[in-house]
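Hello forum,

I keep getting stuck at the same step: I have a sequence, I want structure tokens, and every attempt I make locally crashes halfway through. Rather than fight my setup again tonight, could one of you with a working pipeline run this one for me? It's a single chain of 525 residues.
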Amino acid sequence: MSSHREAPETSKDPAADNTDVYAFISPDRPDTTTLIANFNPFQKPDGGPNFYEFADDVKYTIKVSNTPDIEADVAFEFRFTTRVRDESFLYNTGPITKIGDRTWNRPQTYTVTKVTRGGHRSELAAGLLVPPVNVGIRSTPDYPALAAQAIHRLPGGAKVFAGPRADPFHVDVGSVFDLAGLRPFNDLHLIKERVMPGVNGLQGLNVSSIVLQVKTTELTRGGYGSTQASDPRSVIGVWATAERQKSRMYDARTGTVSATGPWQQVSRLAFPLFNELLVPMARKDYWNGQEPSGDAQFAARVLHPELVGLLPGLYPGVFPNLAAYKKPRADLAAVILTGIPSGVIPGFQNFTGPRQADVLRLNTAIPPSANPSPLGLVGGDAAGFPNGRRVTDDVVTIELRALAGALIPLVDPTFTPDKAAAALTDGTSNTNGAYPLTFPYQATPNSGYAYSPGPASTGAQMSGMPTGGAATGGGSTAGPQDTALAVAGAAALAGAGGLLAVRHRAAGRDHAGTPAETPAGTSAS
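Reply #2:
Ran it on my machine without issues. Output:
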């Protein structure tokens, strides 16, 4: 989860399941913006001989809006083509040291097409190679060098990468879906267990990642490139989608599947955990097929989140102030559905206008932070979530605290958050490879050979250790009224007057520790 298997039908179609979206000003190339869309969740690295890959019959798209109507003004489409070289049952028939090696039996290529508002299409590149998966020390002996060959240049100084990466998201999946359990607070839960550290349920697992880095002026309205954060033209909204054609046919004579008909959106993602936590199960797949410009229909779920009503009951006596608060959550509606207006945080805004929409809002005039905080804006770092999203941002902790009422005083100064609201966390951090500081910003994918499944456990008395071992191996260096209330929330935030003052952090790194050294792939920079 951020959006891993978040909808019943989408969970049956993992190749089209959008897991996470990231948008941030590139720390090493601050005149560019990096856009990331990850798909195909919970990939076990040893899942051969038919390893995980992008689907040839899915259209993957990263979309950007730079106007208040939240329609796609710029989009980048990615289409993949897979072929089999010979009759071997093996994924590879020998070591793969170059992405063009004939020993790789199932190579995959892709095209990148830019689509601007009005339907103008321009193919930016074709025949770009995807790297193979990180099979193991014999098959992919120097995986970082191999993956570096899959960093491709595009016109205008852009870069692109598509291929497997270690999942940068972290969350205690096993606990949070067990009646909203948080292991560090097990003793406060209605059904008590012993306190223990959080367990990153994505440790050792990979995703299929599309990473695109383009000049920021390609994304902003009118090519705007100023450093004035107060200018509304500096804000963009980002989301990603996966589409399939409406008809799929299986030919038993050839064992192949073909598709035809108009394209239908089957997955979308922007703000992390929106569909996961806010949309009821019966409407999750419907939500996946909708455009963000129509998200006013979901405003009631933001103003009255189900989880907010459950927390005081699941953690008795911990959230008395939250339990007594019966007003609509205009703070969440503003942050999630419209962006934060000017006047709340000195020098900051990411307001896209009154239209409610689930998009990831990025103020491109705010430069990267020299000392990024994993708590982003809440931690005094205006370059982080919910101003866009970086791979290092701890969105689970940020959103838990927001749901628990930490931001209500911005719209209602009479409310005092419960003390627990400032301490909530699932207790996890990134336990896959360290986040690189350079493109493609996500760690080397975990190795099939080095992956170590943990011991089986059926009871509640787990040691707290994750069941899958992270190992890179392979030579790696390791309603109308509700709609009106949502709009009013943005206006109230504007008058709240800086209760979230941005402060400069004197020192510190993100929660993953010291960043990785520059990977070999950055020679394309």
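The CA atoms of residues 234 and 364 lie 5 Å apart. If your local run keeps crashing, start a new thread with the error log.
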